[in-house]
Amino acid sequence: TMPKEPAVLRQNILDTTAAILACGIDPKRCFLFRQSLVPEHAELAWILGCLTNVPRLLRLPQWKMKRASQNSEGTVGLLTYPVLQAADILLYKSTHVPVGEDQVLHLELAQDIAQHFNKKYGEFFPVPKAILSEL
């Protein structure tokens, strides 16, 4: 949600890819792709954003903390980032999502959005469940 220099962003993408591969992810057994090249992520985020109310987003603790660190301004991208996360999860009809404690509320938002969408348009998205690690 923070602007990056294009060269730094490109290097970050390469570094992250290298780290994923170094962790043992086998690209012959799984899909490895750059999310920003899949327009459906942003398209679904727009649709889901039209179903999500602003007061709900304003109550998320991550918004409050990051906004405070940005001199009480905050950006629309920061505010709506949890909706993009929901789109990332729901786009692939995920049923289970590994999350840390700090992301449980964002997953609950994804669950609520899925339920709201399904109620309005018919059963389409599974309601994803959290996989919490003890680590």
UniProtKB/TrEMBL annotation:
**Signal peptide bounds:** none
InterPro entries registered for this protein in UniProt: aa-tRNA-synth_Ic (IPR002305), Rossmann-like_a/b/a_fold (IPR014729), Trp-tRNA-ligase (IPR002306), Trp-tRNA_synthetase (IPR050203)
This entry carries the following GO cellular component terms, namely: mitochondrial matrix
Tell me the GO molecular function terms: ATP binding; tryptophan-tRNA ligase activity
- Any keyword Ligase? yes
Q: Which UniProt keywords apply?
A: Aminoacyl-tRNA synthetase, ATP-binding, Ligase, Nucleotide-binding, Protein biosynthesis
GO biological process terms, alphabetically, are: mitochondrial tryptophanyl-tRNA aminoacylation
**Which EC number(s) does UniProt give?**
6.1.1.2
Any Pfam family the entry gives: tRNA-synt_1b
Top-level taxon in the UniProt lineage: Eukaryota
PANTHER family assigned = TRYPTOPHAN--TRNA LIGASE, MITOCHONDRIAL
Instruction: Quote the protein name from its UniProt record.
Output: tryptophan--tRNA ligase
Q: Which gene encodes it?
A: Wars2
